[in-house]
Prior knowledge:
By secondary structure, this protein is α+β, with helices and mostly antiparallel strands. Helices cover 37% and strands 12% of the residues. It has four domains: 35-140, BRCT domain (Rossmann fold); 249-372, DNA polymerase beta, N-terminal domain-like (DNA polymerase, domain 1), CATH 1.10.150.110; 375-427, DNA polymerase, domain 1; 434-535 and 544-563 and 574-667, Beta Polymerase, domain 2 (2-Layer Sandwich), CATH 3.30.460.10. The strands form five sheets. Strands 1-2-4-5-3 form a five-stranded mixed β-sheet. Helix 14 (376-385) crosses helix 15 (392-401), helix 19 (439-457) packs across helix 21 and helix 22 packs across helix 24 (647-658). InterPro entries: DNA-dir_DNA_pol_X, DNA_pol-X_BS, DNA_pol_B_palm_palm, DNA_pol_lambd_fingers_domain, DNA_pol_lamdba_lyase_dom_sf, DNA_Pol_thumb_sf, DNA_pol_X, DNA_pol_X_beta-like.
Amino acid sequence: MASTTQIPIDLTTPSSSPSPAEADRVLDLSHLPPIYLLPTRLSEVTLHSLEQGLLGAGALLTYNPAEAGVVVGDVNTKRRGLLELRGRGVWSEEVIGGVDGGGEEEGLVKVVRIKWITEMLEKGEEVEMGRWVVYVGKKVAPPVVKEEGEKEEGEKEEGEKEEGDDHGEGGPAKKKVKREIGEAGDGVGDGKATASLKSPGQSILERAKLDAQEQSPHRYHRGRGTRHIRHDSEPSRRARPPLLHHTSTGEFEQIHILAQLRTVPDYVSQNLKYSCLRDTPLKPPNSHFISLLQTIRLARTLSLDAIGIRAYSTAIASIAAYPYPLLTSAELSTLPGCDGKTSSLFHEYIHSTPTFAGEEDDNRTIHVVQELEASEEFTTLRMFYGIWGVGVHTAREFYFKNGWRSLDDVVEFGWDSLSRVQQIGVKYYEEFNEHKIPRAEVERIADIIISAARKVGGEKWDGIVCGGYRRGKGQSGDVDIVLSHPEESLFEGNVGGKGGVAVEWVGRIVGELETAGWVTHTLYLGRGGGFGSQRIDHTTTTTAAHDKDTLAKAMLVWQEQEYNPPAELGEKNRNPHRRVDIILAPPSCAGTAILGWTGATTFERDLRRFVEKRWGWKFDSGGVWDRRTGERVKGLGDWRGMEGEGLVECEKRLLEELGVGWREPEMRNTG
């Protein structure tokens, strides 16, 4: 199998993902002629990232190389450029000396090294093409192999009509063909239809030959905004093209009636872009389509596409809040944060099976997701990213720098280079990732932790489980529990001070749990740090309150001691290991800690944006801070436990005071 090239893309790379309103386009490539990306020696993930970057910069991409004015790829020589074009059915003659700019002159095509694209995306500004051009050609008609009995140009078969006659080339028959192909152009198959009309004077056989010449080891299916690659040498990885969906009159009328009966949600009619201002249930009616978008977002995460992550998160949250099954891409485009790219993906999704649009069908799919799931690069990066203690950059280092392809490779070639947390993550990879924690077990763990806190510090200690459990999930990946005590003096030094009282309390609670045999490993015990402890993004450059989220916390590996059925004498504990985080919050920020650790991620992101825009404050789980002074906004998120207030009531009061309004945790599942 040919090797593939991974092109590094900077975090600021523009994307064609549904762009947030605040992301202004810097790089504008809309003036360039149509661009075709050569897939040769490029991985699927890299190819798609480049495509997204170009679309985000306004470039016009084509999936038919015959239409392109600029062809970009991993090409370094003139001869290779010529052969790449010819292999895709584009015949050309070299233009000596080339021309300036793109392929603006009609019939010209330029083959350009891929470095031209990556340099522009990294810098965020247009770069002169000239030094990266390897070949300039004038498109010419392909050579025609004359078959026996085939007429020379200008000869006519007996009875053949002149051009313009009713049944000749220019008559109604030709118009009918054009009309049918034009109608098909709204869905799949545009590129093929266009190719067959490139030379109106050619016979059907000649056009068929030309179509055959355009077939190459990589075959393209033209969709909207997405390149789809089929590897002829790997039949098991072929993606089934979406079915052409023919909507009957009855189906059309049914869709119209359903749409008319729906009440437009307030967040749609008011164009509310903050997900913290709307209800988002755990199981929305469009959950299957959302799951496919989440796979694409994960691919953006693994390719360091920060803009794509944010944009897909916005679209996912908006769709998750929509209370009806989506019927059409036009309906989806009315949702805040869902632009043409998302609508195009839904159009492909809803038409990928013949099922009526209003009915659920888990067989529906999106081709880019099929390609990702078949990609070794994506699946391996996803596996590495699932190791506790391994972030995106480390996962990419494992794959691209070290060349590892499995957990066995990590153990065999890199065990000594791993941190202790990462070693535990590899050792218990299956238990952490495949054996989720049922709600009953989460509740047992929480009861044991709260009891331990009360044993070492008195009955006033209280706690609440956050994360996915609090948002209603049936199973959790880990357990996040926030503990607090109504007396502020117990936490002196936790926020802004020099003492370590809060950390000492965490240590005493963990010590009690270790003595009782519940904790097998203590991987972190301190303030503010620890892998996975920062669940929300605290990035800011405009406030002295930066990194104020320094709550004391402990990261533990937990194992139940009781067996079902009971263990035999001397038998090894066979219960799965669990990840548990204990967070200690003083009463002055108990509400913000609970709100921050409950999630979901996009809810928290939009909450921070809303609070900053409306009040000029910075929100994190350690408190609410005035960006102008860097001081804590007093009274916000403080737990009045001495007055009989519960922890949930404290969070509810905080949301009301922030202007968001109370929203049940089960309605914060923004995906």
